């Protein structure tokens, strides 16, 4: 009898869609064809928008739909072409695509817009203006005034830290009703800053109808106003901000305190260290990484401050409580000066990145040295 | 102040309320077949709706639904029952102070039931509405069929061909010839085509406390203090300044007295109007229709001596105004302050008058009267650079602030096949009879029709005749004044206003001087003009001036 394997060798292998290889080829083809198609659509629409050709859609919406379809085909193509590896990639792909669509692309596009004069009322539309926005920014007193205010607000985070630390230590003690107080102290953090601003900033501290006014009048105060004096206004904004922000820091610090091994504190006690010595030489150094995390997170949140100020003072009196976010909001939304507002945002982002990087580097060096 | 609110006892308002409330309430419930309703059926529609709810009461939602039902006849004449079944409209408007869209909703319910149209409402606060509209325009994502917009925006909306022209049947249904002079073309038109359906006319008038200026004790004190003229309602801004200073520290009926209430905080561009009212008598010369820009080259006038003087007036008055006035926006000055009994003088839109007897927060019934804005002993002449004293006496120049809200049907409604439904809704809300009702009761709108100035009609609501006469005269005299300060309908006008109010707020807070603030505003205005396009702005400004 003849062996059959000879036949198998001589028979040409035809890849079918059902075979793994066929699926791989189909997957790769799908990715290439759909990628080329969507790229062609983007180029076509871009040329139409630029006025080079007539062919294209009335707006970018069909291209956005095509991009969604391409994303789906990319996922399918990855699975078909790369099998198990492709399936793993598909788990990540939606997140990657969303990040590209909603973070990376807008950032790059914003960088481009920042070099344009784009007043929404201008019939001419967007016009490239080079570095003009950045030159204007350097001479914009309002922007630098807001930047100065941000310095005040960020400095206030240190006071918030101290208060949060004290509260965390208090709640870490074995006191009666500890769990109750932990929940109560967290309540402000659960409230919307806008609601807090309205309830306290606009209502309780209202200079005409606020329930606190009769109390102060009974104490002999007259012409009471919480936001007329620039520094008093700033302090009130800081206090409102602190009211709902301190619990956040407190929770982080409390978690850090609870993570300190009991044996370490017990050994310090056995060695005869006082409570103050234990705190200064044991707890505080051990808590430094947590403290820095809490402070840096709060600083980052603080740099975006807008809600409280927008509701309570609108940046006033004058520009005494203005913030960068509010300044950009006015420039971009109310004055519809999109190009300049984008340049302001980009510049602010750059400053934040540099400042936080420097602070983190210095802080890490310090923590290493201390611990 | 709290005690003043709590002390509200029987007054003319409560009496009127009691007298009209029961009858109007019965009618508002629409009890079918009752003799009361049969009697009212013989009255005109306008008399019927003005009785709902009657003076001294703020209309409830069911009141407004009933009013909407009663004014439906003109719609029925042009639209078949269920004609818009399955169609959906999107209406973008305001939600200020519980009025505007919140009044439109119940007013349009009967119409929705009759025509079958569904309405989706987009509510926005006043200081954000224009920015939202402009972003929709630029991003080509207009998502509304009917827009409640201001005449100053027409450069941005009509100038870009985004609105649908008003059909003839709508013009007939709403009787556009009945609009006051201020709202006649070119307002609402672009290149000769009418787009706007008016629901409001706007001008700042002068609201004052009649009890303060009729008080004999204050008159005696004023004379003793060497007051320059007889104690009475100030006729010029110079007198307003003097009276404000005089009233500081004085009391009436145990309450602190204050003079003028200035709006000092930025308010999304609307804060500009309060400063402009302070400035118009100084800056608007009878011989020159232009008062904001030089029409030849769009050079701003905003930092000329007239505007600087007005800003300095506010700075000088602030120490005599209530505490925290430097942070007061427009909502605070009229609702939280003037209607609540704080302050003796207020330059504001006519909403104050229509709320004195009908708003639940008001405690100033029988204490408020009206006039056009104060004048000035002299007026700045931009041509000569000198202050002129007119032979006719003080210069009066009412600030035709904002011209008024209108309804604009967008082109989008044509593409989606809901254009007639959109115009029908607009015509219903801008109907002739309803126009008087919205002027009488809190709605956010002032009288905008000649027919609404019939004092006899207002008298049927139970409002005091003297009050009605004073209010309507202040409105009509502002709208029709030969030296009215008209604002330009040019693109980006609110950018100019926002830029100016931000700088003015800094001056009011003492950060910079009045001159520095207005120089900065002028520089910002130049920049805005360049950004938008100087040549096109010059052409549109000249066209707006007529």
How do the helices and strands follow one another from N- to C-terminus of chain A? HHHEEHHHHHHHHHHH
The Cα radius of gyration of chain B reads 23 Å
Beta percentage of chain B is 5-15%
End-to-end Cα distance of chain B? 48 Å
Instruction: Pick out the low-confidence regions of chain B.
Output: 1-41
Strand-pairing-aware structural class of chain A: mainly alpha
Strand residue content of chain A: under 5%
Sheet with the most strands, sense and barrel status of chain A? 2 strands, antiparallel
Spatial strand arrangement across the major sheet of chain B = 2-1-3-15-6
- Overall average residue pLDDT of chain A: 89
Shape of chain A: globular
Query: Which structural class fits the helix and strand makeup of chain B?
Result: alpha+beta
Number of helices of chain A: 14
Q: What is the helical fraction of chain B, as a range of percent? A: 40-55%
Distance between the termini of chain A: 83 Å
- Percent in helix of chain A: over 70%
Assembly state (oligomeric)? heterodimer
Spans where pLDDT lies below 50 across 5 or more residues of chain A? 1-15
Q: Largest contact between protein chains?
A: A-B, 34 and 46 residues
Strand order of the largest sheet of chain A: 1-2
Count all strands of chain B and give the number: 16
């Amino acid at each position: 009898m003849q062996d059959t394997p000879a036949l198998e060798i001589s028979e040409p292998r035809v890849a079918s869609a059902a075979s793994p290889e066929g699926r791989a080829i189909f997957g790769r083809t799908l990715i290439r064809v759909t990628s080329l198609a969507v790229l062609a659509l983007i180029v076509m629409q871009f040329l139409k928008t630029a006025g080079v050709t007539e062919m294209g859609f009335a707006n970018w919406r069909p291209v956005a739909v095509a991009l969604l379809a391409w994303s789906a085909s990319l996922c399918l193509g990855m699975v078909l072409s790369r099998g198990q590896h492709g399936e793993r990639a598909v788990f990540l792909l939606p997140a990657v695509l969303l990040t590209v669509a909603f973070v990376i692309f807008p950032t790059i596009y914003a960088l481009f817009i920042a070099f344009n004069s784009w007043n929404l009322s201008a019939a001419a539309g967007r016009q490239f203006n080079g570095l003009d926005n950045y030159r204007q920014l350097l001479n914009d007193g309002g922007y630098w005034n807001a930047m100065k205010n941000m310095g005040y607000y960020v400095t206030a985070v240190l006071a918030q830290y101290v208060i949060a630390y004290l509260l965390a230590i208090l709640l870490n003690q074995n006191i009666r009703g500890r769990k109750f107080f932990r929940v109560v102290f967290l309540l402000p953090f659960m409230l919307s800053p806008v609601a807090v601003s309205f309830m306290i900033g606009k209502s309780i501290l209202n200079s005409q109808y606020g329930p606190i006014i009769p109390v102060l009048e009974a104490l002999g105060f007259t012409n009471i106003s919480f936001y007329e004096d620039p520094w008093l206004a700033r302090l009130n904004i800081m206090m409102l901000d602190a009211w709902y922000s301190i619990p956040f820091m407190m929770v982080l610090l409390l978690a850090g305190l609870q993570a300190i091994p009991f044996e370490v504190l017990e050994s310090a006690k056995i060695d005869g260290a006082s409570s103050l010595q234990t705190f200064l030489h044991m707890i505080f150094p051990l808590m430094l990484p947590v403290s820095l995390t809490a402070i840096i997170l709060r600083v980052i949140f603080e740099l975006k401050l807008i809600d409280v100020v927008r509701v309570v003072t609108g940046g006033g009196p004058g520009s005494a409580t203005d913030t960068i976010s509010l300044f950009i909001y006015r420039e971009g939304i109310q004055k519809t000066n999109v190009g300049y507002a984008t340049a302001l945002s980009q510049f602010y982002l750059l400053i934040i990145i540099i400042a936080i990087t420097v602070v983190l580097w210095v802080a890490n060096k310090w923590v290493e040295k201390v611990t | 102040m709290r005690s003043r609110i709590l002390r509200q006892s029987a007054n003319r308002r409560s009496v009127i309320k009691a007298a009209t409330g029961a009858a109007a309430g019965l009618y508002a419930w629409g009890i079918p077949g009752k003799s009361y309703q049969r009697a009212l059926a013989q009255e005109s529609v306008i008399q019927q709706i003005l009785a709902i709810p009657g003076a001294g009461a703020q209309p409830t939602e069911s009141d407004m639904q009933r009013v909407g039902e009663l004014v439906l006849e003109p719609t029925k004449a042009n639209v078949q029952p269920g004609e818009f079944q399955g169609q959906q409209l999107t209406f973008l408007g305001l939600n200020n102070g519980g009025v505007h869209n919140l009044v439109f909703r119940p007013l349009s319910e009967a119409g929705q039931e009759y025509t079958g149209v569904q309405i989706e409402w987009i509510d926005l606060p006043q200081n954000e509405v224009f920015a939202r509209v402009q972003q929709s325009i630029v991003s080509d994502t207009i998502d509304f069929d009917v827009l409640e917009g201001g005449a100053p925006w027409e450069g941005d909306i009509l100038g870009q061909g985004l609105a649908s022209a008003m059909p003839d049947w709508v013009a007939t249904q709403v009787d556009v010839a009945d609009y006051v002079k201020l709202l006649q073309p070119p307002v609402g038109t672009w290149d000769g085509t009418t787009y706007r359906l008016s629901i409001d006319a706007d001008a700042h008038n002068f609201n004052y406390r009649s009890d303060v200026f009729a008080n004999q004790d204050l008159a005696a004190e004023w004379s003793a203090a060497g007051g320059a003229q007889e104690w009475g309602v100030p006729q010029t801004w110079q007198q307003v300044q003097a009276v404000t200073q005089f009233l500081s520290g004085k009391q009436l009926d145990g309450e602190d007295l204050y003079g003028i209430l200035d709006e000092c905080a930025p308010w999304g561009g609307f804060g500009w109007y309060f400063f402009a009212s302070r400035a118009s008598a100084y800056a608007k010369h009878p011989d020159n229709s232009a008062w904001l820009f030089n029409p030849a080259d769009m050079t701003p006038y905003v930092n000329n001596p007239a505007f600087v003087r007005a800003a300095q007036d506010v700075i000088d008055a602030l120490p005599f105004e209530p505490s925290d006035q430097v942070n007061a926006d427009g909502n605070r000055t009229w609702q939280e302050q003037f209607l609540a009994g704080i302050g003796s003088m207020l330059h504001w839109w006519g909403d104050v008058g229509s709320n004195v007897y009908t708003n639940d927060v008001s405690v100033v019934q029988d204490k408020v009267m009206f006039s056009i804005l104060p004048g000035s002993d002299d007026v700045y002449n931009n041509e000569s650079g000198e202050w002129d004293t007119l032979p006719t006496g003080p210069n009066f120049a009412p600030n035709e602030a904002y011209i008024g809200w209108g309804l604009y049907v967008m082109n989008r409604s044509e593409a989606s096949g809901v254009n007639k439904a959109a115009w029908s809704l607009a015509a219903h809300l801008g109907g002739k009879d309803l126009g008087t009702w919205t002027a009488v009761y809190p709605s956010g709108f002032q009288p905008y029709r000649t027919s609404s100035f019939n004092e006899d009609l207002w008298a049927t609501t139970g409002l005091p005749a003297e009050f009605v006469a004073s209010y309507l005269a202040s409105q009509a005299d502002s709208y029709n004044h030969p030296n009215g300060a008209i604002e330009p309908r040019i693109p980006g006008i609110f950018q100019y206003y926002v830029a100016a109010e931000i700088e003015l707020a800094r001056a009011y807070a003492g950060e910079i001087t009045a001159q520095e603030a207005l120089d900065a505003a002028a520089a910002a205005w130049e920049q805005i003009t360049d950004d938008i396009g100087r040549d096109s702005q010059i052409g549109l400004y000249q066209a707006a001036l007529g």
